[in-house]
Design a protein that fits this description.
The complex is a heterodimer of chains A (198) and B (144). Chain A has eight helices and no strands. Chain A has 198 residues and is mostly helical. In chain A, 43% of the residues are buried. Helices cover 50% and strands 0% of the residues of chain B. Classes of the chains: A mainly alpha (198), B mainly alpha (144). Chains A and B meet through helix 1 and helix 8 of A and helix 1 and helix 2 of B.
């Protein structure tokens, strides 16, 4: 799949890159980060014009994110019908409202593996679209121009950057799981201690 | 959520997190070493890269057009080396060309392309010495 996408980018340029990041933002399991870094390297080689390519990719990925937010937004009613009276849903919604901006921001470029679920949760919860788009735009700018810039900087050695950043992303996701798991464990232990010693 | 399911979720999160941290942590260390070794010394913004010379960077997703651009050589030279017509093959990757023209020999197209590029490159000039070469004639001692 990756090889096929890379061949299409060198053949057809920025529109294909835009289509890939757009579909990726909607949930397709494309290697978006690798593609963006490679596109940066292709820009340095003169295969792609870097400014136009960057802008097209940015527009497409933000559009894809907005659509997946929209999917969550339109699924909201169905979810609310089921969980409306749930205390846990209200708690989850307020937690997302508090941390949602940072979640949207960091999942655009660092923990990209959970970007689509975050878009859906943002749409489903009471997270405002204007706030979503602001954090989304800042995060995606870092992804497209920062990661693409690294590809540009490393040129034909872009695979080294891609390998490095792929591992950074996996490590960040692991740390996130670990921190959330430990926080939940502490909360759960405290709650069970309160039950035994009220 | 029942307490037993809650406990299961917490344990699963911690276990998955630990597995990810160990797996990607080890890979991260190796990737960082490689990354550090290839890091450019300074940032420059040239209009385009000079011709690539390293044929180990050739991958089978690349096309003849891309290679001719990156290694700055005429595409016909590569088509001739592969003994295939340019027409209809402009957008095909080396892998696709291999499948179409040499199905019995996987990887031969990449090898042929590498050989053609190497054959086209000018012979490498002898490496410059790392340290300054002392002058052939002895420098007279400084007299006060």
């Amino acid at each position: 799949m990756t090889d096929f996408l890379l061949t299409q980018i060198i053949n057809y340029g920025a529109p294909i890159l835009g289509a890939i990041v757009f579909i990726g933002a909607m949930g397709a399991p494309f290697p978006g980060t690798l593609i963006v870094i490679a596109a940066g390297a292709f820009s340095k080689q003169g295969i792609l014009p870097w400014a136009t390519t960057g802008l097209i990719a940015l527009m497409c990925v933000v559009l894809g994110d907005s659509l997946s937010y929209g999917m969550g937004y339109y699924a909201r009613e169905r979810i609310l019908r089921r969980f409306q009276n749930s205390k846990r849903w209200a708690q989850a919604e307020s937690t997302f409202y508090r941390w949602g901006g940072m979640s949207v921001f960091w999942t655009r470029f660092l923990i990209t593996g959970i970007a689509v679920p975050v878009n859906l949760i943002a749409g489903t919860s009471d997270f405002r679209f204007r706030r979503f788009i602001l954090y989304d735009l800042i995060g995606e700018c870092i992804w497209i121009f920062g990661y693409g810039g690294l590809g540009y900087l490393f040129g034909t050695q872009w695979e080294v950057v891609s390998n490095f950043l792929g591992n950074v992303s996996g490590l960040a996701l692991g740390l996130l799981f670990l921190v959330v798991g430990i926080m939940l464990a502490i909360r759960w232990l405290r709650a069970s201690q309160l039950k035994t010693n009220p | 959520m029942t307490p037993s399911r809650q406990r299961l979720l917490v344990i699963a999160l911690i276990m998955i997190g630990l597995a990810f941290v160990v797996f990607f942590g080890v890979r991260f260390v190796y990737a960082f070493r490689e990354f550090n070794g290839h890091r450019p010394r300074h940032f420059s913004l040239p209009q385009s890269e000079p011709a690539e010379t390293d044929v180990t960077l050739i991958r089978d997703w690349m096309t003849i057009g891309y290679l001719s651009h990156a290694y700055q050589l005429p595409p016909n030279l590569l088509y001739e080396a592969l003994n295939i017509p340019p027409r209809g093959n402009e957008h095909k990757s080396l892998k696709q060309l291999n499948k179409k023209y040499y199905p019995e020999a996987p990887g031969i197209v990449v090898e042929k392309v590498k050989a053609a590029i190497l054959a086209d490159q000018p012979p490498q000039s002898p490496l410059a010495p790392d340290t300054a070469v002392p002058p052939a004639t002895a420098v007279p001692p400084v007299t006060p």
